[in-house]
Protein backbone atom coordinates (compact mmCIF):
# COMPACT_ATOMS: atom_id res chain seq x y z
CA UNK A 1 0.00 0.00 0.00
CA UNK A 2 1.33 3.42 -0.95
CA UNK A 3 2.20 5.74 1.98
CA UNK A 4 -0.21 8.44 0.74
CA UNK A 5 -3.08 5.94 0.49
CA UNK A 6 -2.29 4.54 3.94
CA UNK A 7 -2.30 8.04 5.39
CA UNK A 8 -5.61 8.79 3.68
CA UNK A 9 -7.23 5.64 5.07
CA UNK A 10 -5.92 6.36 8.54
CA UNK A 11 -7.30 9.90 8.35
CA UNK A 12 -10.71 8.68 7.19
CA UNK A 13 -10.85 6.05 9.94
CA UNK A 14 -9.80 8.61 12.56
CA UNK A 15 -12.46 11.06 11.38
CA UNK A 16 -15.08 8.33 11.76
CA UNK A 17 -13.94 7.48 15.27
CA UNK A 18 -14.03 11.13 16.31
CA UNK A 19 -17.52 11.56 14.83
CA UNK A 20 -18.97 8.55 16.67
CA UNK A 21 -17.57 9.29 20.14
CA UNK A 22 -20.75 11.11 21.34
CA UNK A 23 -22.88 8.18 20.17
CA UNK A 24 -20.62 5.72 21.98
CA UNK A 25 -21.07 7.69 25.19
CA UNK A 26 -24.83 7.93 24.68
CA UNK A 27 -25.35 4.18 24.33
CA UNK A 28 -23.51 3.22 27.53
CA UNK A 29 -26.43 3.49 30.01
CA UNK A 30 -28.79 1.74 27.60
CA UNK A 31 -26.30 -1.05 26.94
CA UNK A 32 -25.87 -1.56 30.68
CA UNK A 33 -29.63 -1.58 31.13
CA UNK A 34 -30.11 -4.11 28.33
CA UNK A 35 -27.49 -6.39 29.87
CA UNK A 36 -29.12 -6.08 33.29
CA UNK A 37 -32.58 -6.88 31.89
CA UNK A 38 -31.18 -9.87 30.01
CA UNK A 39 -29.60 -11.08 33.24
CA UNK A 40 -32.98 -10.82 34.95
CA UNK A 41 -34.50 -12.91 32.15
CA UNK A 42 -31.98 -15.65 32.84
CA UNK A 43 -29.48 -15.06 30.04
CA UNK A 44 -25.83 -15.63 30.83
CA UNK A 45 -23.08 -13.13 30.05
CA UNK A 46 -21.87 -15.09 26.97
CA UNK A 47 -25.46 -15.33 25.71
CA UNK A 48 -25.95 -11.57 26.06
CA UNK A 49 -22.65 -10.84 24.29
CA UNK A 50 -23.59 -13.26 21.50
CA UNK A 51 -27.03 -11.66 21.11
CA UNK A 52 -25.57 -8.16 20.89
CA UNK A 53 -22.84 -9.29 18.52
CA UNK A 54 -25.17 -11.07 16.11
CA UNK A 55 -28.18 -8.76 16.29
CA UNK A 56 -26.59 -5.33 16.96
CA UNK A 57 -29.97 -3.63 17.15
CA UNK A 58 -30.78 -2.14 20.53
CA UNK A 59 -34.48 -1.46 19.97
CA UNK A 60 -35.11 -4.99 18.74
CA UNK A 61 -33.17 -6.46 21.66
CA UNK A 62 -35.19 -4.48 24.19
CA UNK A 63 -38.46 -5.61 22.59
CA UNK A 64 -37.25 -9.21 22.50
CA UNK A 65 -36.43 -9.12 26.19
CA UNK A 66 -39.76 -7.48 26.98
CA UNK A 67 -41.66 -10.43 25.53
CA UNK A 68 -39.10 -13.06 26.54
CA UNK A 69 -40.51 -16.13 28.26
CA UNK A 70 -39.65 -19.76 28.83
CA UNK A 71 -40.05 -21.26 26.31
CA UNK A 72 -39.17 -18.26 24.17
CA UNK A 73 -41.90 -17.10 21.71
CA UNK A 74 -39.55 -17.24 18.73
CA UNK A 75 -42.12 -16.27 16.10
CA UNK A 76 -43.30 -13.23 18.05
CA UNK A 77 -39.73 -12.15 18.73
CA UNK A 78 -38.81 -12.52 15.06
CA UNK A 79 -41.85 -10.61 13.78
CA UNK A 80 -41.36 -7.82 16.32
CA UNK A 81 -37.70 -7.45 15.40
CA UNK A 82 -38.55 -7.42 11.70
CA UNK A 83 -41.20 -4.75 12.22
CA UNK A 84 -38.92 -2.52 14.26
CA UNK A 85 -35.98 -2.90 11.89
CA UNK A 86 -38.08 -2.27 8.78
CA UNK A 87 -36.66 1.24 8.91
CA UNK A 88 -33.38 -0.27 7.73
CA UNK A 89 -34.99 -0.77 4.32
CA UNK A 90 -35.39 2.99 4.04
CA UNK A 91 -31.95 3.67 5.49
CA UNK A 92 -30.38 1.17 3.10
CA UNK A 93 -32.17 2.64 0.10
CA UNK A 94 -30.97 6.09 1.11
CA UNK A 95 -27.33 5.16 1.67
CA UNK A 96 -26.93 2.55 -1.13
CA UNK A 97 -26.05 5.01 -3.95
CA UNK A 98 -23.43 6.60 -1.70
CA UNK A 99 -21.60 3.33 -1.00
CA UNK A 100 -21.99 1.84 -4.48
CA UNK A 101 -18.21 2.13 -4.89
CA UNK A 102 -17.61 -0.29 -1.99
CA UNK A 103 -16.56 -3.78 -2.99
CA UNK A 104 -19.13 -6.55 -2.46
CA UNK A 105 -17.55 -7.90 0.72
CA UNK A 106 -17.12 -4.41 2.12
CA UNK A 107 -20.75 -3.57 1.30
CA UNK A 108 -22.04 -6.63 3.17
CA UNK A 109 -19.92 -5.79 6.21
CA UNK A 110 -20.99 -2.15 6.10
CA UNK A 111 -24.68 -3.08 5.98
CA UNK A 112 -24.28 -5.58 8.83
CA UNK A 113 -22.73 -2.84 10.95
CA UNK A 114 -25.31 -0.21 9.96
CA UNK A 115 -27.16 1.24 12.91
CA UNK A 116 -29.17 4.44 13.19
CA UNK A 117 -26.13 6.40 14.34
CA UNK A 118 -23.89 4.94 11.64
CA UNK A 119 -26.41 5.74 8.93
CA UNK A 120 -26.97 9.30 10.17
CA UNK A 121 -23.27 10.14 10.50
CA UNK A 122 -22.42 8.67 7.09
CA UNK A 123 -25.34 10.48 5.47
CA UNK A 124 -24.00 13.72 6.89
CA UNK A 125 -20.51 12.83 5.66
CA UNK A 126 -21.84 12.19 2.15
CA UNK A 127 -22.96 15.82 2.00
CA UNK A 128 -19.33 16.89 2.41
CA UNK A 129 -17.40 14.25 0.46
CA UNK A 130 -17.71 10.64 -0.78
CA UNK A 131 -17.99 8.08 2.00
CA UNK A 132 -14.80 6.05 2.34
CA UNK A 133 -15.05 2.49 3.63
CA UNK A 134 -12.40 3.41 6.20
CA UNK A 135 -14.64 6.20 7.48
CA UNK A 136 -17.60 3.81 7.72
CA UNK A 137 -15.47 1.40 9.76
CA UNK A 138 -14.25 4.25 11.94
CA UNK A 139 -17.87 5.04 12.80
CA UNK A 140 -19.28 1.52 12.99
CA UNK A 141 -16.57 -0.59 14.64
CA UNK A 142 -16.19 1.48 17.85
CA UNK A 143 -19.98 1.69 18.18
CA UNK A 144 -20.32 -2.07 17.65
CA UNK A 145 -17.59 -3.00 20.14
CA UNK A 146 -18.90 -0.42 22.59
CA UNK A 147 -22.44 -1.87 22.44
CA UNK A 148 -21.34 -5.49 22.73
CA UNK A 149 -18.92 -4.78 25.55
CA UNK A 150 -21.23 -2.68 27.69
CA UNK A 151 -24.20 -5.04 27.30
CA UNK A 152 -21.94 -7.86 28.48
CA UNK A 153 -20.82 -5.79 31.45
CA UNK A 154 -24.44 -4.94 32.24
CA UNK A 155 -25.25 -8.64 32.33
CA UNK A 156 -22.28 -9.27 34.61
CA UNK A 157 -23.26 -6.48 37.02
CA UNK A 158 -26.92 -7.48 37.10
CA UNK A 159 -29.67 -4.96 37.79
CA UNK A 160 -27.48 -1.96 38.63
CA UNK A 161 -28.77 0.33 35.86
CA UNK A 162 -32.53 -0.09 36.00
CA UNK A 163 -33.64 3.46 35.16
CA UNK A 164 -31.50 5.65 32.84
CA UNK A 165 -34.09 8.43 33.19
CA UNK A 166 -33.09 8.84 36.82
CA UNK A 167 -29.71 10.08 35.57
CA UNK A 168 -31.08 12.04 32.62
CA UNK A 169 -29.58 9.56 30.17
CA UNK A 170 -32.93 8.93 28.47
CA UNK A 171 -32.54 12.21 26.56
CA UNK A 172 -29.04 11.39 25.29
CA UNK A 173 -30.18 9.78 22.02
CA UNK A 174 -32.71 12.54 21.36
CA UNK A 175 -30.10 15.25 21.85
CA UNK A 176 -27.60 13.43 19.66
CA UNK A 177 -30.04 12.95 16.78
CA UNK A 178 -31.25 16.54 16.96
CA UNK A 179 -27.62 17.59 16.50
CA UNK A 180 -27.22 15.22 13.54
CA UNK A 181 -30.42 16.53 11.93
CA UNK A 182 -28.96 20.05 12.01
CA UNK A 183 -25.93 18.73 10.13
CA UNK A 184 -28.19 17.08 7.53
CA UNK A 185 -30.03 20.33 6.75
CA UNK A 186 -30.08 21.01 3.00
CA UNK A 187 -32.74 23.69 2.78
CA UNK A 188 -36.56 23.86 2.87
CA UNK A 189 -37.03 20.35 1.46
CA UNK A 190 -35.18 18.96 4.47
CA UNK A 191 -37.55 20.78 6.81
CA UNK A 192 -40.59 19.43 4.99
CA UNK A 193 -39.28 15.85 5.21
CA UNK A 194 -38.47 16.22 8.91
CA UNK A 195 -41.85 17.77 9.70
CA UNK A 196 -43.76 15.09 7.77
CA UNK A 197 -41.78 12.33 9.46
CA UNK A 198 -42.22 13.77 12.95
CA UNK A 199 -45.94 14.46 12.53
CA UNK A 200 -46.67 11.03 11.08
CA UNK A 201 -44.61 9.17 13.68
CA UNK A 202 -46.29 11.10 16.50
CA UNK A 203 -49.78 10.43 15.14
CA UNK A 204 -49.15 6.70 14.66
CA UNK A 205 -47.49 6.44 18.08
CA UNK A 206 -50.59 7.93 19.72
CA UNK A 207 -53.13 5.89 17.77
CA UNK A 208 -51.56 2.51 16.94
CA UNK A 209 -50.11 0.00 19.36
CA UNK A 210 -46.64 -1.33 18.71
CA UNK A 211 -43.57 0.16 17.02
CA UNK A 212 -45.32 0.92 13.71
CA UNK A 213 -44.60 4.63 14.22
CA UNK A 214 -40.92 4.03 13.39
CA UNK A 215 -41.58 2.75 9.88
CA UNK A 216 -44.47 5.17 9.34
CA UNK A 217 -42.34 8.19 10.17
CA UNK A 218 -39.54 7.04 7.90
CA UNK A 219 -41.85 6.37 4.97
CA UNK A 220 -43.63 9.72 5.41
CA UNK A 221 -40.34 11.60 5.48
CA UNK A 222 -39.05 9.79 2.38
CA UNK A 223 -42.27 10.44 0.44
CA UNK A 224 -42.36 14.09 1.45
CA UNK A 225 -38.75 14.55 0.37
CA UNK A 226 -39.35 12.81 -2.96
CA UNK A 227 -42.51 14.83 -3.61
CA UNK A 228 -41.38 18.31 -2.63
CA UNK A 229 -37.61 18.36 -3.26
CA UNK A 230 -37.86 18.56 -7.09
CA UNK A 231 -40.49 21.31 -6.85
CA UNK A 232 -38.42 23.35 -4.42
CA UNK A 233 -35.28 22.88 -6.50
CA UNK A 234 -37.16 23.95 -9.65
CA UNK A 235 -38.60 27.01 -7.92
CA UNK A 236 -35.14 27.98 -6.67
CA UNK A 237 -33.68 27.57 -10.15
CA UNK A 238 -36.41 29.72 -11.70
CA UNK A 239 -35.92 32.39 -9.06
CA UNK A 240 -32.22 32.50 -9.83
CA UNK A 241 -32.73 33.06 -13.55
How many separate domains make up the residues? 2
Give the mean pLDDT: 79
Q: What is the rounded distance between the termini? A: 48 Å
String of helices and strands: HHHHHHHHHHH
The counted number of beta strands is: 0
CA-based gyration radius: 20 Å
Number of contiguous helices: 11
Helical/strand content category = mainly alpha
Low-confidence stretches: none
The gross shape turns out to be globular
Largest sheet: none
Provide the β-strand percentage band.
under 5%
Transmembrane segments: 16-36, 48-68, 74-96, 133-153, 165-185, 192-208, 214-233
Organism: Tepidamorphus gemmatus
Pfam families: AzlC
Family: Belongs to the AzlC family.
Task: Tell me about this structure.
With 241 residues, this protein is mainly α. The protein has two domains: 3-184, no CATH class; 186-241, no CATH class. The chain is 76% helix and 0% strand. The chain has eleven helices and no strands. The protein is globular, with a radius of gyration of 20 Å. The mean pLDDT is 79.
Question: Any key phrases for this structure?
Answer:
76% helix; single chain; 2 domains; 241 residues; mainly alpha; membrane
The gist of it:
With 241 residues, the chain is mainly α. Helices cover 76% and strands 0% of the residues.
Amino acid sequence: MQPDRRTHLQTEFRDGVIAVVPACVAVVPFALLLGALAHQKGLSVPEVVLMSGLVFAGASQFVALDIWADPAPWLMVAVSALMINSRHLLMGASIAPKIAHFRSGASYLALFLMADEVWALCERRSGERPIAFAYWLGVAVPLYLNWVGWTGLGAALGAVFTDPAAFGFDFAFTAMFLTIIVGLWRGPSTGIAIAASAATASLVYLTVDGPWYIAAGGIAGALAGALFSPRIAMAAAEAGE
